[in-house]
Records
---
Amino acid sequence: TQPPRSEELLAEMKNDATILNFARGELVDSAALKAHFDAGHKGKYVTDFPEDLLWDHDQAIVIPHLGASTEEAEDAAAAMAAETIMRFL
């Protein structure tokens, strides 16, 4: 996935716009977004898949990725871990 014309899109946004990205990190051009923020734009970037370039940036808000945190998914993960341990023993 390639970010679409990042600099142009960022330039068209309101100065204090917040970008929410819970899909894929590649959808946002991190270098262009960092340059946008460093140029004085006051927006925020909220994501659960940060790239290193934005991990510690003051305008990036990183939240845990919880896409698979359902009761069923956790039960399946526990069963898989138990099965793996039993095979090892």
Note: The two ends are 42 Å apart (CA to CA).
---
Amino acid sequence: LKEERVLLLDAWRVFEKAKGDAESLAKVDAMLPRRVKRKRMRTDESGAELGWEEYFDYHFPDDGDSNAGNLKILEMAAKWKQAQQAQDSSSSSEDESDDED
């Protein structure tokens, strides 16, 4: 799906270069994705690991909101962890005060 989207944007860019003006070309250029090299583990049908495979992924500027959801989850997890640590430290300090009595 991403590759098809890249091909469509590239064809649109070629069209704008031939027939469009600078403003329309700049609009299409702003929609073009950033190409990112990634790695993933390859496995065969039986599930055995074959090694790492490099591939290209595309990050579109329009899809910026999809990463925001992941960041929100990480932020909430960090807050939860801090709350748990605060709760643990307060319960341990209560235990110490009980031991003093």
Note: The beta strands are 34-43, 49-59.
---
Amino acid sequence: REREREERGAAAKENNCFEGEGEANENMMRRATATCSCSGETKQVPRGLASFRRSRASPLALRRQQEREGLLRARGRNVVLCKAEQGEDLNAAAPSMPEDVVASESTAALGGTPVKRTSMLVVGATGTLGRQVVRQALDDGYEVRCLVRARERPADFLRDWGAIVVNGDLTNPQSLPPALVGVHTVIDCATGRPEESVTDVDWKGKVALIQTCQAMKIQKYVFFSIFNCDKHPNVPLMSIKHNTEKFLDQSGLDHTVIRLCGFMQAVISQYAVPILEEKSVYGTDDQTKIAYMDTTDVAKLTLASLKKENCSKVLTFAGPQAFTIQQVIGLCERYAGADAKVTKVPLWWLTATRIATSWFQWTIDVTDRMAFAEILSSNESFVAPMQDTYAELGVDPNQTVTLEMYLQDYYSMVLKKLKEVGAQSRQGDYYL
């Protein structure tokens, strides 16, 4: 033990000696530089003196110097790769600039990390539309990061697909900046849940997200809105969507607004499933038509818009054909092979209920959503021509799924599953 202590003491003295010599050499180099640069000229340190300095430095100082040199070389390679990806001529001479500007740009190039055009953040990735955007983006070769709220049952299916999952919440702005580091494009698919406040999520949360994207220098922002939202300022959800569009336009971000008419997936939850379960479905006698579109097609068109350099700022996505509620119920009855129990809801009943719920603070959110439902029952058609959009995005319209095809595939799959499990009771008892 005494011999070990003596050896450690000798080693410590040797290291202190090396470090002292290193400091002395450093002071000598400073004095030499000051003597050479007094005339205003910058002279390089002789190679022999620099090598002498490195040879006399301590092992710790040498290791730190090697790490710094390796880091600078790696950063230089990243800058070259970034320029190559952007198609810049690496051999072209740079224009002459002041020395302070050159220094600041070189410092930024060495200190920053190049952001790939394929890096993407999907907000609301577990939703009906968000998960389809994630899957399509992964198929197209994007590096996808998903912003999801912390919950008991994690979104493992997103990780299984190959996406990166990060926790964040629009109602907690402090959780947003870490998720945006190294991101080029943000696709906003989020919306409030039925039990949540529309104002807190769809307005305050979106404003916080857009402001964070401004601060983080996000280069592309995609926002999903509602068709004809600018024509209904008295409906809270549509008014919020329109105000978000205006706020995004004033933010200065390169953005695209996509207005949607309706999802085919909503038909499944509102009509297809209740008919299978022999439950009542609710409808009206109005002639409101909605051009439903499959969220898979919405995702494909959205990714196609990202590949266009001069894409329109506002796009409208609509399905190939529009249907009334009665027509949708008829399609479900045909492919399910069962009659629907339809309960007619008069339009005046919706209006009266919305007025009644507006008197109580705890039912304000219900009132807001009923106002949107009232618009959907006002004989207004949510239909938009798509010929120009398909031509602009370079997408074949014949590849778009129709509502008949969607319902037929859905019911054939479900009924096949029911037969496999040997369902002999009510269909709702074995619905998977």
Note: The first helix runs from residue 2 to 36.
